[in-house]
Amino acid sequence: MLKTYELIDRSNSVFCSFIVCSAILVLKMLVMSTLTSIQRFRTQTFSAPEDVVFSEGAEVNFNNENINRVRRAHRNDMENILPYLTIGLLYVLTDPLPWLAKSCFLIATIARLLHTFVYAVYVIPQPARAICFFVQWFITIYFAIATIVFFIPYF
Amino acid sequence: MLKTYELIDRSNSVFCSFIVCSAILVLKMLVMSTLTSIQRFRTQTFSAPEDVVFSEGAEVNFNNENINRVRRAHRNDMENILPYLTIGLLYVLTDPLPWLAKSCFLIATIARLLHTFVYAVYVIPQPARAICFFVQWFITIYFAIATIVFFIPYF
Amino acid sequence: MLKTYELIDRSNSVFCSFIVCSAILVLKMLVMSTLTSIQRFRTQTFSAPEDVVFSEGAEVNFNNENINRVRRAHRNDMENILPYLTIGLLYVLTDPLPWLAKSCFLIATIARLLHTFVYAVYVIPQPARAICFFVQWFITIYFAIATIVFFIPYF
Known about the structure:
- By secondary structure, chain A is mainly α.
- Chain A has 4 helices and 2 strands.
- The first copy, chain A, is elongated.
- The mean pLDDT of chain A is 89.
- Chains in contact: A-B, A-C, B-C.
C-alpha cells in the first residue's frame, strides 16, 4: 500500500486533476474583484471616501444592487470554494477511485463557474442558481464524510 | 530525523487527528448555508429578486435579525476557521508533541462548534461566545508562531 | 527529477519561505478581529444585543464607519489572502525558480501588510491601497497560471 504522501505526486492523475481544477476556481474568485471594480466604476459607486477621487461625480453608497449582487456571489464563493479547496486536498490523500474523484472535481468546478454566471453576470431564473449551488455543496459534503471515514481508524 | 513530507502519512496520528477535526469543521461550515436557507424560507426573506419566486408572500429584505445572526456567525467562521485550516496543516509539518497538538485540534474544534451554537442556534449571554472565540483564536495564534519559529532557520 | 512530495521538506528553502510568509499573513488576519473589537469597545458599537452587556451606554449599530472600514479590510483579506495561501502551496509543488518564488512571497506579504495599514490603520490617499491590492492580486494570478501550465500535461 502506498504511503499517503506518495499520492502528492505528478504521477497521480487524481492529484493533478484536483490541482488544475483548484487553480481554475482560484482564478474565478480573483476575477470577482475585477467584476466588482467594473461595476463600481461603471456606476460611480464606491465604499470608501478616499476612492471617490478616482473620478468626478462619484459617491460613497452601499445600496447599488448591481454591486451588491457581485459581492454576494463573491461571498458565496468564499463560503463554498475555500472549504472545498481544503477538503478536496485531504480527499485526494484518501486515494479515491480515480474516475469518481476526477468527475467530482470537474462537476464541482463547472457548477461554481455556472453559479457565478447565473448569479452575477446574466441572471437566470431559479432554480438555476440553487442547482449549481447544491451540486458543489453535496460534493463537498461527500468529500468531508469520505475523508473522515478513511482517516478515523488512524485517529 | 524524519523528512518533513513523511509526516503526511496515515501512520502519523497527529496528521490524522488534524484531518478528522478539519473535516468536521468543514461540515459545520457547510451546515451554516443550510441554517441560512431555513431562516430565509421560515421568514420568507430573500436577498435576490429571482429567489422570491420560490413562494408567495416572499420579499427581498436585508434587515431580518435571525438571518443576519446566522450570516454573522458564518462570516466569523470564514474569518477564523479558514486560516486555522491552513496554519493547522503547516503546524503538523513541524512535528509537534502529539498530546499537545491533538489536544489543540480537539479543543479548537469543540470551541468552534459551541461558538456556532451560542451565536446562531440558541443565544446564550456573554461571555459564552467570547470565550469560544478566544479559545480557538489563541490556538491559531500559537500554531502560527510555532510554525514560524520552526521554519525560520531554514528560510 | 524530484518526486513532487519531496519538495515538501525543510531542506527546500522555497517551501520554508512560503510557510513563514503564510504564517505572517495568518497572524495579520487574526489581528483584524482584534482591531474590530478595539473599534467596537472604543465607540461602544456592537452587532449583537447580547454584546451590549459588556458596558453601559453601548448600543447595537451597523453604521459606524470606523468599524465598517476594518471589516471591509478584513473581508478583502479573506477574498485575497485565503485563495493565495492555497495556490501558493500548489505553486511550491511546481518547483519554481527559487529567487522568483521567494521574491513573490516576500512582495505579496509586504503588499498585504501595507494594504491593511493604508486601509484600516492610517488612511492614505489612493492609489496607495489600489497598488497594494494589485501587486498581490497579480502575483496570485501568476501562481494560478504557472500551476495550471505545470500540471496540465499530467491531467
